[in-house]
Design brief:
It is a single chain. The protein is about 70% helix and about 10% strand. It has about 180 residues and is of the alpha+beta class. The chain has 2 domains: about 120 residues; about 60 residues, no CATH class. The chain has a 3-stranded antiparallel beta sheet. Strand 1 and strand 2 form a beta hairpin. The chain is rod-shaped and about 185 Å long. About 5% of the residues have low confidence. Bound molecules: zinc ion. The site of zinc ion (ZN) has 8 residues, from loops.
Length: about 180
């Protein structure tokens, strides 16, 4: 009986020790678990951060591909515009030629305008010619020397416009002897 009791006592002591050990183990495990839980949380946070970074990178990647797309579009637009400019220039060429022609024509008409616009000189000549007619310089035929005022005829020379407005013509002389004309 006593032995049994002793045994029982020993057993209960063993049991108590065992329980203590188990409790300690549980405590240690709990600590480990809490440490692991913390690590897990850290890991989860890290995963979250990495996912976010990844998302950012993906967004950037999308942006980059969009930029590439934009770039391609701009390149195409530039090429299109260059084509349009070329076509415009090609279409412009006849106009440029026309313009150059019309400029030439204008300069020609201007040059021809100058001829009758020298008239002050011609008028002077004309006036002098009239006054000189008394000194017979113009009333003398340059061909045969005929200086007879009765056989030298004065006519309006419609081929020589001295003034446009009012329209004034030059004068010409015709020799009654040999028939030549001079101015
Ligand atoms: Zn004459």
């Amino acid at each position: 009986m006593n032995e049994i009791n002793q045994n029982n006592g020993k057993d209960s002591a063993d049991a108590q020790e065992f329980i203590q050990t188990l409790t300690n183990t549980i405590k240690t495990l709990e600590k480990t678990i809490s440490v692991l839980n913390k690590k897990l949380k850290d890991a989860e946070n890290e995963i979250k951060t990495l996912r976010e970074e990844n998302r950012n990178l993906e967004t950037k990647g999308v942006n980059a591909s969009e930029l590439i797309k934009d770039n391609e579009m701009y390149k195409m637009k530039i090429a299109e515009l260059e084509r349009e400019i070329k076509e415009y220039k090609r279409n412009q060429e006849p106009y440029e030629a026309e313009k150059a022609k019309s400029e030439k024509v204008t300069s020609v008409t201007k040059a021809s305008d100058i001829v009758p616009k020298k008239p002050s000189e011609v008028i002077k000549e004309q006036v002098l010619g009239v006054s000189e007619s008394t000194t017979a310089t113009r009333r003398k035929c340059p061909n045969c020397g005929n200086a007879n005022p009765a056989s030298i005829h004065e006519k309006v020379d419609k081929t020589r416009i001295i003034m446009e407005s009012p329209r004034m013509y030059g004068k010409k002389y015709i020799c009654g002897e040999c028939g030549i004309e001079w101015i």
